């Protein structure tokens, strides 16, 4: 199951970035499982990585290489089928080996190849298979291959995920294209998935990193499927500069415009993950308003978004406001005055001042809950801060998938 | 589904406590749904209540009455089928009304009747039906009715839960008997369920409260089914003094003996809840050793015990150590050195120093995971503190139950 539309809009190529997806047989035959993104020498790359204390070998290496090469990555080397996580020193050697091979093949230094892996944890990476597939990948590099790459990085995803946006500035066009993968083991801190985003804007390394951090904070760090943070998550942002448009602090309007564009693209990608959440029947927006600070809004939003009882009620299209109240009540907000709390389901007032709203009818609630897109709005009445989190329901299919897939 | 044995051992009567269970038709016909426990004038009662900010009306009232009557409760009035939660001022009036009626019927003051409700949230309590059932309950009071009471407080429970323990002291016997209910919406903070425990020991109010608090901390506050804390949880401890044995600080040996007895009874009751967890196929003990403090041990234990991915792997009898590692890694322990971590599945070393244990075989892991009782032991290598938490798996049946039951 998944929610939302099936088809991907066209993904626009980014000048300075070429892509190939090939079949290396990492875990399964006849499946595109190795993706190479080749970046021009002008490209600058920023990255944000998982906060999980158990980092997979490629995450450790990509973070290290990004630093030592000062963002001058020339290749992103991505495989699915094997996460190269929990593999110790052997895993580090295998990841290094793959990067080294591609570096030798292309004449760049090893730390200009950043590795990314997703798939089963705890099995040795078949580095040989990946290395063997690299010459074929070099031959297949093309600018217009984003869709293929989006397919090539899928694991339990049921559909490829990507988005392109652009803006005009003084007759010149800037484009941003991104792809992402992820369907389970999804929870912020950061970005519990892989995402690769590129733009043809010209952006210096430090600003690029700041733009990425902000965009991730309000997109991938605002989604949850099951509260489980993976060991392999990375989100990379590449700026090729090929459009000739420079983004920097001298033109703050353009910077703000670009930042909005990037944030919206990231939010769009993050939402696609939730649409494709394992076993999802519902796409749920949890908006918490009236908080004293961001942290308490997020506590309430995640208590709701990760409550198995709220999530199973969502699956059942049951407007079970008692479970929502109970989740808010245990969210750990100090001195919460429950008599100030309102809850809205779409436009319908469900709870008013901590009790059932006087005009609410079960038929109203049912009618909204039976839709695929559900908006829950909580008013805390404590201040002016708002936060929004996106999540899915918890269905029998989620259990079926995760009781059979060895992730 | 449930795990462990089906049958309840005999529950021993406690002199000074009489019990009746009657059919009041609160939600369903032909079901014992109102339980009255009548306490002798010598009884002292202690209580611990839910930490959820949304407290049900009976919780608010029971806490208040327990204080104003200084623990001299004469009746505990329990109903299932309706939690009287999220019912505002009306709910308070309904709860007060029930207590007042029983007080008038029996000639005690209203604050000597403590109300407890469990069941559906957000619907008005049918106080009339409960009041109408009270005279019949008075006629049915008997000392040996604990099993009937255990059945009378069930909601989604598939079996009654109770335990009796006793000890001899200088030729005199002290007995403790307790019953509990709960199967979903189970998570500490405190005691996400109802429990009623009585002893014939003679214990002053303040000590009784302290003994209860300690016992709850290591029993009901160490279990989780789904991380959802309910709005109605209460655990009450009654001491009738009828045995003539005084427990106080003058005989510290006896006090320690009794405290152990009580703690073990409470742990036994808490474990029964986990055995009967909604949809449970597995009874899982998560022991975390080698922590620097209790809090970090509990963070790790709960990250594992509440991870949907670990729980679905348990359902599938899959020794998926990658998911356990990932849960530990996101538990939020500062400066966690993953290279020190060992994981044991029963007696089998699964992870050694952060990587797969060299001698581990999948067959070993599978063989232990296929059992009903599973013990996970995590060694953090940071200090000397240990904590143990009990949990269940996450099965399709859990989703089915909670996608249909309106709790």
UniProtKB/TrEMBL annotation, chains A, B:
Site residues by UniProt (Cleavage): 191-192
GO cellular component: cytoplasm
Binding, substrate: 155, 181, 192, 278, 402, 407
Substrates-to-products reaction catalysed: N(2)-acetyl-L-ornithine + L-glutamate = N-acetyl-L-glutamate + L-ornithine; L-glutamate + acetyl-CoA = N-acetyl-L-glutamate + CoA + H(+)
Swiss-Prot/TrEMBL GO biological process terms: L-arginine biosynthetic process; ornithine biosynthetic process
GO molecular function (one): L-glutamate N-acetyltransferase activity, acting on acetyl-L-ornithine as donor
Domain of life of the native organism: Bacteria
InterPro entries per record: Arg_biosynth_ArgJ (IPR002813), ArgJ-like_dom_sf (IPR016117), ArgJ_beta_C (IPR042195)
Broad class of where this protein is predominantly found: cytoplasm
Annotated localization: Cytoplasm
Top enzyme class: transferase
Keyword terms, alphabetized: Acyltransferase, Amino-acid biosynthesis, Arginine biosynthesis, Autocatalytic cleavage, Cytoplasm, Multifunctional enzyme, Transferase
The protein's assembly and partners: Heterotetramer of two alpha and two beta chains.
Free-text function comment from the UniProt entry: Catalyzes two activities which are involved in the cyclic version of arginine biosynthesis: the synthesis of N-acetylglutamate from glutamate and acetyl-CoA as the acetyl donor, and of ornithine by transacetylation between N(2)-acetylornithine and glutamate.
HAMAP family, per the entry: ArgJ
Name recorded for this polypeptide: Arginine biosynthesis bifunctional protein ArgJ
Organism: Pseudohongiella spirulinae
Lineage of the organism: Bacteria, Pseudomonadati, Pseudomonadota, Gammaproteobacteria, Pseudomonadales
Gene designation: argJ
């Amino acid at each position: 199951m998944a929610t939302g539309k099936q088809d991907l809009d066209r993904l626009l190529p980014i000048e300075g970035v070429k892509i190939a997806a090939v079949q290396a047989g990492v875990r399964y035959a006849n499946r595109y499982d190795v993706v190479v993104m080749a970046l021009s020498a002008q490209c600058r790359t920023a990255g944000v990585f998982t906060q999980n204390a158990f980092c997979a070998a490629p995450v450790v290496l990509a973070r290290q290489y990004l630093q030592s090469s000062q963002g001058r990555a020339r290749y992103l080397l991505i495989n699915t089928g094997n996460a190269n996580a929990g593999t110790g020193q052997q895993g580090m050697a295998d990841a290094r080996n793959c990067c080294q091979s591609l570096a030798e093949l292309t004449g760049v230094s090893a730390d200009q190849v950043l590795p990314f892996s997703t798939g089963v944890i705890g099995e040795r990476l078949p580095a040989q298979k990946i290395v063997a597939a690299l010459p074929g990948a070099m031959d297949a590099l093309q600018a217009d291959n984003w869709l293929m790459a989006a397919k090539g990085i899928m694991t339990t995803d049921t559909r490829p995920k990507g988005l392109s946006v652009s803006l005009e500035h003084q007759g010149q066009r800037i484009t941003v294209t991104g792809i992402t993968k992820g369907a389970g083991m999804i929870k912020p801190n950061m970005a519990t998935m892989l995402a690769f985003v590129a733009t043809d804007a010209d952006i210096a390394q430090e600003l690029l990193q700041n733009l990425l951090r902000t965009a991730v904070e309000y997109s991938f760090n605002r989604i949850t499927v099951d509260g489980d943070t993976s060991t392999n998550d990375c989100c990379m942002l590449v700026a090729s500069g090929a459009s000739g448009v420079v983004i920097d602090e001298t033109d703050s309007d353009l910077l703000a415009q670009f930042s909005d564009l990037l944030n919206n693209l990231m939010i769009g990608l993050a939402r696609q993950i939730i649409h494709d959440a394992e076993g999802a029947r519902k796409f749920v927006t949890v908006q918490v308003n009236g908080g004293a600070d961001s942290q308490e809004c997020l506590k309430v939003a995640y208590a709701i978004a990760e409550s198995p009882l709220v999530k199973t009620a969502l699956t059942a299209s049951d407007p079970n406001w008692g479970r929502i109240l109970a989740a808010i009540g245990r969210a750990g907000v100090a001195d919460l005055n429950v008599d100030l709390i309102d809850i809205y389901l779409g436009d319908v007032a469900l709870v008013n001042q901590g009790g059932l709203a006087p005009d609410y009818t079960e038929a109203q609630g049912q009618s909204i809950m039976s839709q695929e897109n559900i908006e829950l709005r909580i008013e805390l009445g404590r201040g002016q801060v708002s936060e929004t989190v996106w999540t899915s329901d918890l269905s029998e299919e989620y259990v079926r998938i995760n009781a059979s897939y060895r992730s």
